[in-house]
Design a protein that fits this description.
The structure holds 2 protein chains of 2 kinds. Chain A is mainly alpha-helical. In chain A, 88% of the residues lie in helices and 0% in strands. Chain A is elongated and about 70 Å long. By secondary structure, chain B is mainly α. Chain B has 3 helices and no strands. The chains are: A mainly alpha, B mainly alpha.
Chain lengths: 118, 114
């Protein structure tokens, strides 16, 4: 092995570790937003972003282990995440138009915050 | 040749993870759901797309590269659709943007406050 090849293998190893660490930090930040809310669409956006971070995790693990079959799992996860977001959007729309009490409380809260200038 | 591929893969992985981190910081820092959607659907999609392309470059195999490009195109197509759908549903349900959004042109037409 030439020195360049040794350096490249080391570099790839450490960049996979660094990217996994960055993804873990963003994962926890998104989980915090999912728990905190404050409204239902906020949580749906956070779950959508969680799927994107999951795809990043799968790609990094695929590079780490060398199993390129992981890319199929990533594409499938993206498809499921898209369908879940669409279903949640329909849910928000239907419940909002039907005047669901929880959603109406959050809506009034958002209107109040807009008028209070926050 | 392998060394160059490995270095490019590592750089792309770190770039993609940084974009995902920036997107999640945007999700926690921005003020209402419409602003948060910007961070999630633009930076988040770019982050996962770059990481998938890094996997494809590391594989250097036509089958994997084709699937990765198909996946990236799929994400680039679906992320704006889902974000737009969710924003439209949230606005139609009555959620209003925060006060930093000065103009709210639809306020009088979509569910005016009774």
């Amino acid at each position: 092995m030439t020195p360049l090849e040794t350096f490249a293998a080391q570099f790839l190893h450490y960049s996979v570790l660094i990217s996994l660490a960055l993804l873990t930090v963003s994962f926890f930040i998104i989980v915090f937003r999912t728990v905190k809310g404050p409204s239902l669409p906020d949580r749906v956006v956070a779950l959508d972003m969680l799927v994107a971070v999951g795809i990043g995790f799968i790609a990094a693990i695929g590079v780490f282990t060398g199993f390129y079959l992981y890319i199929d799992i990533a594409i499938t996860l993206g498809l499921v995440g898209f369908l879940a977001t669409v279903a949640f959007a329909r849910f928000v729309l239907n419940r909002g138009l039907a005047g669901d009490k929880t959603i109406m409380d959050e809506v009034e809260d958002s209107i109040r915050r807009r008028e209070a200038g926050q | 040749m392998t060394a160059v591929v490995e270095i490019i893969t590592g750089i792309m992985l770190v770039i993609g993870a940084s974009f995902a981190l920036v997107a999640s910081i945007g999700i926690i820092r921005l003020k209402d759901v419409y602003m948060r959607m910007h961070a999630a659907s633009k930076a988040g999609t770019l982050g996962s797309g770059v990481m998938l392309l890094a996997l494809a470059i590391h594989a250097s195999d036509l089958a994997v590269v084709t699937r990765a490009i198909a996946g990236v195109v799929f994400f680039l197509l679906t992320a704006p659709i889902s974000a737009h759908l969710l924003a439209k549903a949230a606005y139609a349900a009555g959620y209003r943007p925060c006060a930093d959004t000065k103009e709210d042109a639809l306020a009088k037409t979509v569910r005016p406050k009774s």
